[in-house]
Write a structure and sequence with these properties.
2 domains, alpha/beta, Rossmann fold, single chain, five-stranded parallel beta sheet, 244 residues
Length: 244
């Protein structure tokens, strides 16, 4: 059981107790270890699987590094779910790195969501919500798995002052503020920004902070996992600040 996310584990435990279960879940965020552990723990709880690894009512998809998830794999998922459970009340599908689902696979998965039998439970594990189509995400329970250590990359006073100005709705020169941030330290800056937002959220959990925290996490993921130009990351942050 991933102990680092007790609220999510408690929620999933209540889901098991308070039937019927939703057919689809999206576990999203960069914290891959606990995220994947939670998916496996949840499936084993549903299946009452003491073996913890193999179970005839568990279908597991984990693509290779450069492999996309094709519609053929989702067709196998459909066949698997069509059959009655072998020894459990449910049949569970876990799809790791669900951001690798191509568009055809996502459309096929959406159809499965819409026609899923009562015994079907599908868990998607993805880096971000925007890596999966909105129609798929909207039909699933969404649970976030991301954690930034608040004792690391805390902003210095100058950076903290810039962050405070960025949050002000009536402050017009947001772009000028961002230009003062060092693009060579974009990853560290975004970690500090996320910690800054988390502290704000704890004291004042408004929709604005929630939306900005979610969007900033997506940008941080792109910086950490792709070759996005840091200046583009800052531009994306500016757009998010203006829209929220």
């Amino acid at each position: 059981m991933p102990a680092s996310y007790p609220k999510i584990i408690n929620y999933l435990s209540r889901c098991i107790e308070n039937k019927p279960l939703p057919h689809a879940y999206v576990f999203y965020g960069p914290d891959d270890g606990p995220k994947n552990q939670a998916a496996l723990w949840f499936s084993n709880m549903l299946l009452r699987n003491k073996n913890l690894k193999f179970h005839p009512d568990l279908f597991f998809i984990k693509p290779e590094f450069n492999e996309e998830i094709s519609i053929n794999l989702i067709r196998q998922v459909k066949k698997f779910l069509t059959l009655r459970p072998y020894s459990s009340e449910y049949k569970v599908v876990i799809i790791e790195t669900a951001e690798k689902l191509n568009s055809y696979a996502q459309n096929a998965l959406l159809k499965i969501f819409e026609e899923a039998p009562n015994h079907a439970v599908i868990i998607l594990c993805a880096k971000t919500l925007d890596s999966i189509s909105d129609t798929v995400v909207s039909r699933a329970i969404r649970l976030p798995f991301w954690r930034i250590k608040t004792d690391g990359w805390l902003p210095d006073k100058n950076t903290s002052d810039i962050f405070e100005l960025l949050l002000k709705t009536d402050f017009p020169n947001k772009y000028g503020c961002v230009e003062k941030l060092d693009p060579r330290k974009a990853l560290e800056t975004f970690e500090s920004w996320l910690n800054f937002l988390r502290i704000k959220f704890k004291t004042d959990p408004t929709k604005k902070i929630t939306d900005l925290l979610t969007k900033s996490q997506h940008i941080y993921f792109k910086l950490n996992e792709t070759n996005i130009n840091p200046k583009f990351a800052y531009d994306e942050l500016i757009l998010a600040l203006w829209r929220i």
